[in-house]
Design goal:
196 residues, mainly alpha, two-stranded antiparallel ribbon, 4 strands, globular
């Protein structure tokens, strides 16, 4: 039953982020302090992303770039050795610690723990014209991590292959698949060559 599954998934998301947020609160505080003292600007940055059913929402991250350069052009991918990234930004991006404020997005209901990664509106408009079945990923809530990411398609990688994995997730979702993705996400983060 679709409604039962969606309620169960939502309940798991909320319980997971509340408990995990309490456990890692010292880490969140430490990162916030380091971001603040190592470069001028806000601790958290927000950016428009496209979510479920094409709804625009603001995604939250720890700021990892110097504030005067922070995503000055939303039409550009972050590159390896990007000069905009701060010293602490390199570390938190490498291990995806900069993504942890998205627990708030999950708590609000904009995102789920597991799902296709949300993209910026510019790229959605671009890819929906050039990548077959691209918009299918928006049939579910976007996630912090997903099937594509644990299979190596994160960041500046093949968008066509990423969408293939996203569609597989949408069409084959189960709680067991979510658990598999959660378990595989941690080793993927540690060894991810596409994290920069």
């Amino acid at each position: 039953d679709i409604s039962y599954n969606s309620i169960f998934k939502r309940l798991f998301d909320v319980i997971f982020v509340v408990i995990t947020s309490v456990i890692i609160s010292p880490l969140l505080l430490l990162v916030a302090i380091l971001v603040k003292v190592t470069s001028p600007g806000p601790i958290i940055y927000k950016q428009e992303r496209v979510g479920e059913d094409g709804k625009i929402f603001m995604i939250y991250k720890f700021r990892s770039m110097s504030s005067e350069n922070e995503y000055i052009d939303d039409k550009v991918w972050t590159k390896k050795d990007d000069p905009r990234i701060t010293s602490i930004g390199k570390i938190i991006r490498k291990y995806s610690i900069d993504e942890l404020p998205q627990f708030y997005n999950i708590f609000k209901g904009d995102m789920s723990l597991i799902g296709p990664r949300p993209e910026r509106p510019y790229f959605v408009n671009k890819f929906k014209e050039s990548v077959p079945k691209y918009m299918i990923k928006h049939h579910v809530k976007p996630g912090m991590t997903g099937w594509a990411q644990i299979n190596g398609y994160r960041g500046n990688t093949s968008i066509v292959k990423r969408i293939e994995y996203d569609i597989y997730y949408v069409e084959n979702w189960s709680f067991l698949l979510d658990m598999k993705i959660i378990i595989k996400t941690i080793p993927t983060l540690i060894n991810d060559k596409n994290a920069y």
